[in-house]
Amino acid sequence: MIKTISTTPYTDQKMGTAGLRRKSKVVMQPNYVENFMQSIFNVIGNLNGKTFVVGGDGRFYNDIAIQKIIKMSAANGVSHLIIGQNGFMSTPAGSNIILKNKADGGFILSASHNPGGPNADFGIKYSNHTGGQIPSSVSDAIYQQTTKISEYKICDIPDINLSQIGHQEICGMSIDIIDPVEDYVQMMEEIFDFASIKKLFQSGFTMRFDAMNAVTGPYAQRIFEEILGAPKGSVVNYKPLPDFGGLHPDPNMVYAKELVDFMFSDNAADFGAANDGDGDRNMILGKKFFVTPSDSLAILTDNYKYIPAYKDGIYGVAKSAATSTAVEKVAQAHNIGYYEVPTGWKYFVNLMDSKRITFCGEESFGTGSAHIREKDGIWAVLFWLNIIAATNKSVEDITTEFWQKYGRNYYVRFDFEGVDTTVADKLMENIENKLPSLKGYSQEGFTVSEAFPFVYNDPVDFSSTKNGLVVKFTDGSRIVYRLSGTGSSGATIRVYLERYSLSDIKQDPLKMLTEIFKIAMSISEIPERTGKHQADVVT
Ligand code: G16
Fold first, then answer.
1. 383 burial class (0-12, 13-18, 19+ CB within 10 angstroms)?
2. CB of 69 within 8 A of CB of 163?
3. In whole angstroms, what is the distance from residue 154 CA to residue 6 CA?
4. Which residue's CA lies nearest to atom 1 of ligand 1?
5. Kind and range of the H or E element at 430?
6. Are 5 and 112 in contact (CB under 8 A)?
7. Catalytic residues
8. How many angstroms separate the alpha carbon of residue 113 from the centre of ligand 1?
9. If you measure from the C-alpha of residue 92 to the centroid of ligand 1, how many angstroms do you get, rounded to a whole number?
10. Which of 381, 317, 382, 312 is nearest to 351 (CA)?
11. How far apart are CA 500 and CA 450, in angstroms?
């Protein structure tokens, strides 16, 4: 039943920040998935005795790609697959299943927060035995394979029925189809104080969780409504749909508009939250109040003692370089380790495995801990609920008290999308060339204290990664420039702005960052080089 099929390479199978992301139509080309998967299998080598976890966020083409992966796994000698029922599994749940079963890795079929559908995006995230996505050295080797692939192996059998939980054997490989929600719920129950969150809901506390028609709907309904007792209907857009019902499943102020409008209305719930396509990102809202992801990481870290799993102490904390420095002050206050890594959750994995950090987070709506090796949307929501239950304070009060204690890092990210890649590359090169001469440069009353490309030297594997360009000012303000690594076409220039104030904590972030934005534009020459005077997305 095993067939070897000739193929020719595609030239565009290089993974980005988190796996391979392309337009669905690109992925649907003949042998596209097959070439990519065979390249992975070739790099791993002997697959005999190996176990992999497979699932996805249910987006368009999930059902087709998963069948290809199953049949190719069997043909390549994989011994065992653990698959989410109907092909569904969130990214954090997948990481947990890999760790719990000591699997050799896993494949989550998702383009994360990117929209889904025939005219939208598809993707494949590949994790190894750590439960986290593979390091760049491995993805580079896979890319090399994709450029010279000439054949792939596949089992010539009918599609496998993924709807029944249980065990099957195909082509000499064993398959276990599991409930993708069950183990995840158990893990959350072990981390958080479910009894006190239950009491919170019993007292009349209200919440709205927007699953954005993506993978977390069933997880959220089970946890928030069925177990914790949030009123039925608290979880909205709960049914995972192949095109996410036309929603762009990115939980931010722009794309989670329905939730934002509700939470900023007079009928708002006490607490609001959203997750992205594959359930690793989160957005936190209070009544007419938004918590930036950078602040969220700092606040969770500062309040770790309320959480049963962390109350006895935590290791350090890490953030991506582009994330605001709010959590640095918390790390100093608690006397714990503090690390800055490049953008990409995979860079946290070594720090977690070596017990250097417990918490980590990114400005791109990602927060998580060492319970798994991916960011975790529902975990972040439960963490907030647990703090609220323990302190009896609102999201706004918790955040305001945090700013009163540590000062406020005003922070906004500006995305310039759909830029020609050559223009974007030149623009970044031009900024980088300018960096050495920027020290002492003054504009709008701000003076540059240092300017440098961000370079991360991993303390565990000693690899070195360059990602982003940093301009720091004498008052602690910062500009970071980066090109996104998660888009599926063209380039997105990300400009991250930050300004710190110890006592002036109630201002409008955009107003506070007006001057820094002007400086960022004149250093980068974005308007002149791209023709864009406004960002396409401001979060
Ligand atoms: C991925 C990575 C994150 C990263 C984000 C944005 O998240 O796992 O570490 O912050 O992309 O990356 P970029 O700025 O390069 O677009 P996800 O949720 O998309 O898998």
1. buried
2. no
3. 11
4. 18
5. helix 421-438
6. no
7. 112
8. 9
9. 14
10. 317
11. 16
pLDDT string in tens for the chain (539-residue length)? 999 999 999 999 999 989 999 999 999 999 999 999 999 999 999 999 999 999 999 999 999 999 999 999 999 999 999 999 999 999 999 999 999 999 999 999 999 999 999 999 999 999 999 999 999 999 999 999 999 999 999 999 999 999 999 999 999 999 999 999 999 999 999 999 999 999 999 999 999 999 999 999 999 999 999 999 999 999 999 999 999 999 999 999 999 999 999 999 999 999 999 999 999 999 999 999 999 999 999 999 999 999 999 999 999 999 999 999 999 999 999 999 999 999 999 999 999 999 999 999 999 999 999 999 999 999 999 999 999 999 999 999 999 999 999 999 999 999 999 999 999 999 999 999 999 999 999 999 999 999 999 999 999 999 999 999 999 999 999 999 999 988 778 999 999 999 999 999 999 999 999 999 999 999 999 999 999 999 999 99
Q: How far is CA 193 from CA 44, 174, 228, 276, 369, in A?
A: 40, 37, 10, 24, 16
Q: Using alpha carbons only, what angle is made at residue 435 by residues 429 and 439, rounded to the nearest 5 degrees? A: 170
97 neighbors 178 (Cβ within 8 angstroms): yes
Cβ-based burial of 55 (10 A; exposed 0-12, middle 13-18, buried ≥19): buried
Assess whether the C-beta atom of 341 lies below 6 angstroms from ligand 1. no
CA-nearest of 464, 305, 277, 306 to 375 is 277
Our answer on whether the CB atom of 344 is closer than 6 Å to any ligand 1 atom is yes
Residues 6+ apart with CB under 8 A from 51: 78, 79, 80, 81, 82, 101, 102, 103, 104
CA of 261 relative to ligand 1 center, distance in Å: 25
Kind and range of the H or E element at 498?
A: strand 491-501
Residues 197/198/199/203 CA torsion (nearest 10 deg): 100
Question: With helix as H, strand as E and coil as C, how does 61-120 read?
Answer: CHHHHHHHHHHHHHHCCCCEEEEEEEEECCHHHHHHHHHHCCCCEEEEECCCCCCCCCCC
Amino acid of residue 7: T
Regarding the beta carbon of 301 and ligand 1, being less than 6 Å apart is answered no
> Whose CA is closest to 359, among 339, 385, 378?
339
- State how far the Cα of 258 lies from the Cα of 209, in Å rounded to an integer: 11
Task: Burial-class residue 345 by CB neighbours within 10 Å (0-12, 13-18, 19+).
Answer: buried
